[in-house]
Amino acid sequence: MKNLIYILFAFFCLLPVGAVWAENVIPFVSVSASNSDGIMLSGNLVNYSGMSEKSLDAMHDNAPDGSTMWCSRSGVLGDVKLTFDLKKSYRLQNLYIWNFNPPDNLNKGVKNMRIEYSDDYANWTELAAPEDPGYTPDTTYPFQLAQASGTNGLNATNLNDGKNTPIRLSGIQARYVRLQISKTIGNGNWGGNAFGLSEVLFTTDEAVSDALNVIVDFGQVNNTCGNMLFGGCQNPSLPHSRKILPQLVDAGFNCIRCDMWLENILPSNITYQDYLNNVNDVQNPDTWNFSDLEMAVRAKKSGMKVMMIIAYCPGWLAYNGTSKGVPMDMDVYADIVRKVYSRYYKYIDWVEVYNEPGYFMTIDKSPYASAGTALADIYMTCVKVIREITPDMPIGGTSVVTHGDGGVGGNTNRDFFADTRINKDNFNFYSHHVYGDYGIPTEQETVTRVKGQLAKFGYGDLPVYFTEWSTSINNAADSVTYIGSKSHLFVGNCLVNWMRDGLAGAMHWNYMQAIAENGTTEQGIASDAHGLYVWDVRNKEGRLLPKAYVFRLLSKTLGLGIGENRVVETDYTEVGEYLNAVSLINNDDEACTVIVNKYKFPVKIALSSEAYYSKIEKYTVTYVEQGMDCEDIAFSNKQSIITLAPNSVTGIKYIK
């Protein structure tokens, strides 16, 4: 007997470590849900949001709003499904689950479910019910989950057997696993009106790779994008601009969208007849106020390009007496535009006519049936003046947004483009505004969609500029992506998406002060949570916010602010939940890759390319790192193993 024990002990001791008992967490799982509620997205189940670490011993938070968890929409009828893609076929051991943990909504946590698995997504097998479950099972949904406690620091809750036992997968071979939750309130959950979970981890006894594959093919050019993506609008205040403008230029901001507010330039206390009769020499532009345009002059002299909006109308010239009304005398309107433009054209690189006409323009008391038809007359009046002075000046518009009258494909554009005077010789680019509360989340807006809408009118091949963009037009909403710790990620994801999709240019909303320190008020200085800088009121100094680091990385460090950039093939499709990436060749024929690590843990990637280069340089932007310090990366056989910092934007330069 002693000999047998010794033989068995020796046998097991000679096994490679982990050969029998290893339990490796499968990394980089994706998930789709039958539906999700607001910010409680299914991706939160696999991205370690709310988790203390990446391990089976991790503890989950109890975020009251469920923002680190997944939950279905309330009151949705029908089956509730979660389908997990493990990215490759594994021999599976266990399934660990942290149930829904907001303290006031624990009853929404999943209760009874069944589990199915597949290797090909076509043929599904139901996992056998536990033999000794320790609870009374529902025969159709035999896996009953323990309810969460609502405390911060929740361990895996798993099965409701009194021991929180993980679900045994018992060596099944699968790539896909589906959780089918009972749709019955009180059976599929613990009594709430929706169904939720916090986190899900799968384990295998196989070795797992912790590196994500990112493969770049610099020989396959998929698209081109412009270099004017690194701009802003809504000027920094003039008193601050002498300190802030050089910082913006140094950070790679290369363009600005300014307003030619005609209602501010002309006197407001006159009448239409006063102008016609030149009362008090009012037709003389030397008597007008051009202070609003000083920022455009300073920006141009600093090296930025300027997009100028010819905006609105003096109230005394409008049919309805307001600045957003339609001019009642296009000859007088042309005279005003001519006098302003002739003074400032040398500081202007593009002209945009009007701003959000479908939203701002009021046609009451005018003979026009729609904003689009009125806009066509205003537009052609401006075109005539501009082309007389600067025949080659690019002109465009119309900055219709998605919430008003149907957006890009809606009524305003329909009526505007229906005017036979409008053509591609005088309409050279399209201006579009991107805010999440206009109907499409900012990061999900695409050039492709906008051009598809423009194609309805025959203008689908125009260059597109996103001339205003931020998460929401409301200052109070989602400050994390304005001035908080995720602002650099928001900027990185937007710009990466839009470069890949061929955007010509973009102007971030906005260049204004975001935060005032050492005093909160200065006369004449406005603050806006979307802004790009912090101003020290006492010491009269300013500094750019961390989201500006991303602009510097892309525009200056990687050289994407020089000229047209070629967008090349970058394959990271299996890990899109964790990364966002684009690779480009800039105007100086320099190659680079930009990678956004979207979650709070480091990510290791295997970066591969067949292109010739002698070394790789890595630049990292986080909320505290500006991305200027280069790190040389070793590579072998055209592959490098690179670790991305948590919640970071990384720039890779390939040096020939």
What does this structure look like?
The structure is a single chain. This protein is α/β, with parallel strands linked by helices and 656 residues long. It has twelve helices and 30 strands. Strands 1, 2, 3, 4, 5, 6, 7, 8, 9 and 10 form a ten-stranded antiparallel sheet that branches. A nine-stranded mixed sheet has the order 28-27-30-25-24-23-11-26-29, covered by helices on one side. The protein has an eight-stranded parallel beta barrel with strand order 12-13-14-15-16-17-18-19, surrounded by four helices. A hairpin with a 6-residue loop joins strand 5 (112-118) and strand 6. Mean pLDDT is 91; it is low at 1-20.
Roughly what percent helix? 10-25%
* Biggest sheet architecture: 10 strands, antiparallel
**Percent of residues in beta strands:** 25-35%
Count every helix, treating DSSP H or I runs of 4 or more residues as helices. Answer: 12
Overall strand count: 30
- Summed over residues and divided by their number, the pLDDT gives a mean of 91
Q: Roughly how many Å is the radius of gyration?
A: 30 Å
Uncertain residue segments: 1-20
Distance, first to last CA: 69 Å
Secondary structural class: alpha/beta
Shape: elongated
Notable traits:
30 strands, alpha/beta, 9-stranded mixed β-sheet, 28% strand, 656 residues
Write the layout of secondary structure elements.
Elements: H1 2-14, E1 24-25, E2 30-33, E3 70-71, E4 80-99, E5 112-118, E6 125-126, E7 143-144, E8 167-168, E9 173-181, E10 196-204, E11 211-225, E12 228-233, H2 238-250, E13 255-261, H3 262-265, H4 272-276, H5 294-302, E14 305-311, H6 330-344, E15 350-353, H7 357-360, H8 371-389, E16 395-398, H9 411-417, E17 429-435, H10 447-454, E18 464-470, H11 487-500, E19 505-509, E20 513-517, E21 533-536, E22 541-544, H12 547-557, E23 565-571, E24 579-585, E25 591-597, E26 603-609, E27 615-621, E28 631-633, E29 639-644, E30 648-655
Parallel strand pairs: 11-26, 12-13, 12-19, 13-14, 14-15, 15-16, 16-17, 17-18, 18-19, 20-21
Antiparallel strand pairs: 1-10, 2-4, 3-10, 4-8, 4-9, 4-10, 5-6, 5-7, 5-9, 11-23, 21-22, 23-24, 24-25, 25-30, 26-29, 27-28, 27-30
